[in-house]
């Protein structure tokens, strides 16, 4: 990914290194990485800064991560930006985040478009500020036919809300006579989720050491490998991503089966 994506936002461009780091096996990369970007507030508190400064720095970490995932040939990155529960934070923090999302999207859209990133926003977008909804619609449309990494930003996303919505959509189709309840199987259910069409994440990264899912991708993470790191999200860098990918490559995925070697 070129420097275009990293320009702006008061940071010096980071040197590009498109080649895969030597210890990684290119044949065993995760196709889809999901990340719970946590620890922004603690990062700021450690520096006696307001929490929102952690969010601002967190954007840099997200841009770094997207760039590296794209450079290294990972097909999809899904990032948890704002949960359905995050509305319970102080009003000023919520407003700051909404404005930050708007500013970053506006600033980065041209670069995302140019870099062939296909961006989508997953979640219930209606309660978001109108200007943000407009930018989201524009970004989604302008990048829809891009052929590069799928970048999914979970915004006002909750796993339970997503499952309830899928059940409601299926029930509506049954009520309209379009669907027989016997046709509802895992494929039909998954097709009603926000992530429809995307392979399930192979790897879930959670930063800042918390050992929980926090209502993220409850259906899709069924067989994801979990990597929990103490690194706070604003500090998440290439070395931290490499550590997560190496951890992943050291796992043996069985999907309920048995180890073929014994
Ligand atoms: C994650 O960082 C970002 C969002 C939830 C938007 P936090 O803001 O949760 O940071 P901590 O967990 O308080 O350190
Ligand atoms: C999860 O982090 C949500 C996002 C990263 C957007 P939280 O900080 O909200 O999760 P909890 O409260 O620690 O479970
Ligand atoms: Mg948190």
How would you describe this protein?
It is a single chain. The protein is an alpha/beta fold. Helix content is 38%, strand content 13%. The protein has a domain at 29-158 and 202-249: 3-Layer(aba) Sandwich (Undecaprenyl pyrophosphate synthetase). It is built from seven helices and six strands, in the order E-H-H-E-H-E-H-E-H-H-E-E-H. Helix 4 (130-143) links the parallel strand 3 and strand 4 (150-157). It starts with 31 loop residues before the first strand and ends in a 13-residue tail after the last helix. Residues 2-17 have low confidence and may be disordered. The chain binds 3-methylbut-3-enyl trihydrogen diphosphate (2 copies) and magnesium ion. One 3-methylbut-3-enyl trihydrogen diphosphate binds next to strand 2.
Summarize the structure.
With 262 residues, the chain is of the alpha/beta class. The chain has helices spanning 40-46, 51-71, 91-114, 130-143, 159-175, 186-190, 238-249; strands at 32-36, 76-83, 118-122, 150-157, 203-206, 225-228.
Q: Identify the quaternary structure here.
A: single chain
**Secondary structure category:** alpha/beta
Strand order of the biggest β-sheet: 3-4-2-1-5-6
Note the gap between the termini.
Answer: 41 Å
State the helix count: 7
Q: Main β-sheet, in a few words?
A: 6 strands, parallel
State the CATH class of the domain at 29-158 and 202-249. Alpha Beta
Kindly state the mean pLDDT as a whole number?
A: 94
Proportion in β-strands: 5-15%
Contiguous runs where pLDDT drops below 50 for at least 5 residues: 2-17
Task: Compute the CA-based radius of gyration.
Answer: 19 Å
Shape: globular
CATH superfamily of the domain at 29-158 and 202-249: Decaprenyl diphosphate synthase-like
Estimated helix fraction: 25-40%
Taken in chain order, the helices and strands follow as EHHEHEHEHHEEH
Q: Number of DSSP strands?
A: 6
- Small molecules bound in the structure, each named once: 3-methylbut-3-enyl trihydrogen diphosphate, magnesium ion
CATH topology label of the domain at 29-158 and 202-249:
Undecaprenyl pyrophosphate synthetase
CATH architecture of the domain at 29-158 and 202-249: 3-Layer(aba) Sandwich
């Amino acid at each position: 990914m070129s420097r275009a994506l990293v320009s702006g936002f008061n940071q010096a461009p980071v040197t590009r290194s498109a080649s895969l780091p030597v210890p990684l096996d290119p044949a065993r990369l995760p196709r889809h990485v999901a990340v719970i970007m946590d620890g922004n507030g603690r990062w700021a508190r450690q520096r006696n800064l307001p929490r929102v400064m952690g969010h601002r720095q967190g954007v840099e970490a997200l841009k770094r991560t997207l760039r590296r995932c794209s450079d290294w040939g990972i097909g999809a990155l899904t990032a948890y930006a704002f949960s359905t529960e995050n509305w319970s934070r102080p009003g000023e923090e919520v407003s700051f985040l909404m404005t930050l999302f708007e500013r970053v999207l506006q600033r980065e859209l041209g670069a995302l478009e140019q870099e062939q990133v296909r961006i989508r926003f997953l979640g219930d977008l209606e309660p978001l500020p109108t200007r943000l909804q407009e930018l989201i619609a524009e970004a989604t449309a302008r990048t829809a036919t891009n052929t590069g990494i799928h970048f999914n930003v979970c915004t006002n996303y909750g796993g339970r809300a997503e499952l309830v919505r899928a059940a409601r959509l299926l029930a509506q189709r049954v009520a309209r006579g379009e669907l027989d309840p016997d046709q509802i199987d895992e494929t039909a259910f998954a097709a009603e989720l926000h992530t429809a069409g995307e392979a399930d994440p192979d790897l879930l990264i959670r930063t800042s050491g918390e050992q929980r899912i926090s209502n993220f991708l409850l259906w899709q993470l069924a067989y994801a490998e979990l990597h929990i790191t103490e690194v706070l999200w604003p500090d998440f860098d290439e070395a931290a991503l490499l550590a997560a990918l190496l951890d992943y490559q050291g796992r043996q995925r069985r999907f309920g089966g048995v180890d073929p070697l014994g």
